[in-house]
Amino acid sequence: MDCLYWVKRDSYLPIGSHGLKAVTKAKLRYNPVEVDPEEICKMAHDLPQTLSNYAISDAVATYYLYTSYVHPFIYALCTIIPMKPDEVLRKGSGTLCESLLMTKAFIAEIIFPNKQKLEAQKFTKAGNLLENETYVGGHVEAIESGIFRADLKYRFKIDEKTVDKLLRDFEKALVYTLKAEHKKELVEVTNYPELNGFVRNSLEQFKENVYKSEYPVIYHLDVAAMYPNIMLTNKLQVKRTKTQPPSIVDESVCASCDFNLPFKKCQRQMKWIWRGDFCNC
């Protein structure tokens, strides 16, 4: 069971490759013994040794998969996350990130809120029973759905308004990068005009050719564990104060807060959305 949970959550194998045979080929690099069901009875009489090898092949593959991947994985996570081995494998990635953040908050002496427990039954204002609801948080928009491959060219359409905005702001971004990240003044950079011209020419080429056919660069962004931990992460960004305001508050809470200062980063305005599924009957 530990191997199964590890394969589903942490092996990064495709959905159709979660079977023991496929995992053995991908992770252990050997082909397990396979026998057609029609030949089992005949093989029991003619080739009993081969059939016995097939009978224990699954157990052998499971053992080596556990000792090679699952057990070191559990041990490594348990050294940094205060959870039992079963919970480390079976909890979601958001819960694991939250526990890790709480550990860091405890070390930094930062007060963090207790984990909220959802009510067993909740109803809408109209009296309908809620079947499922999301936490109040950010939402992810799927701009375009489909199957994308890095080895096939894809037709892109460049947004001209975005390019115009980049043309207006890229010089400020260059200066900020030099001063804030590289700690250098503009006069110290000898090839700044060449870099400036290269960026400007590249952006202008996008405007001239709005439609481009290129090989895409595919990134995988795991947002499942992102939003539940935004609030605690914001608290950990400021380590000088032991008590910090909650991340989701209204104006009245901010007005009475001791840390209500204009330069505080906790006052970032964010758009939150709630979604719920309810029974109409």
Overview of this protein structure:
The structure is a single chain. The chain is mostly helical and 281 residues long. The protein folds into three domains: 3-108, no CATH class; 122-138 and 224-278, no CATH class; 154-214, no CATH class. It is 46% helix and 5% strand. The protein has ten helices and four strands. The chain has a two-stranded antiparallel ribbon with strand order 1-4. A two-stranded antiparallel ribbon has the order 2-3. Helix 7 packs antiparallel against helix 8.
Short recap of the structure:
The protein is mainly alpha-helical.
Q: Could you give the topology of this structure?
A:
Blueprint: H1 2-10, H2 20-28, H3 40-46, H4 48-78, H5 85-90, H6 93-107, E1 130-133, E2 154-157, H7 160-181, H8 192-208, E3 211-214, H9 230-236, H10 251-255, E4 276-278
Antiparallel strand pairs: 1-4, 2-3
Helix pairs in contact: 2-4, 3-4, 6-9, 7-8
Number of helices: 10
Percent helix range: 40-55%
* Strand percent estimate: 5-15%
Global Rg: 28 Å
- What letter string, H or E per element, gives the SSE order? HHHHHHEEHHEHHE
Sheet having the most strands: 2 strands, antiparallel
Q: Helix/strand-derived class?
A: mainly alpha
Tell me the strand order in the biggest sheet.
Answer: 1-4
Low-confidence stretches: 238-246
The oligomeric state of the chains shown is: single chain
The domain count comes to 3
Shape descriptor reads extended
Tell me the distance between the termini.
Answer: 39 Å
Protein name: DNA polymerase epsilon catalytic subunit
Catalytic activity: DNA(n) + a 2'-deoxyribonucleoside 5'-triphosphate = DNA(n+1) + diphosphate
Main location: nucleus
Family: Belongs to the DNA polymerase type-B family.
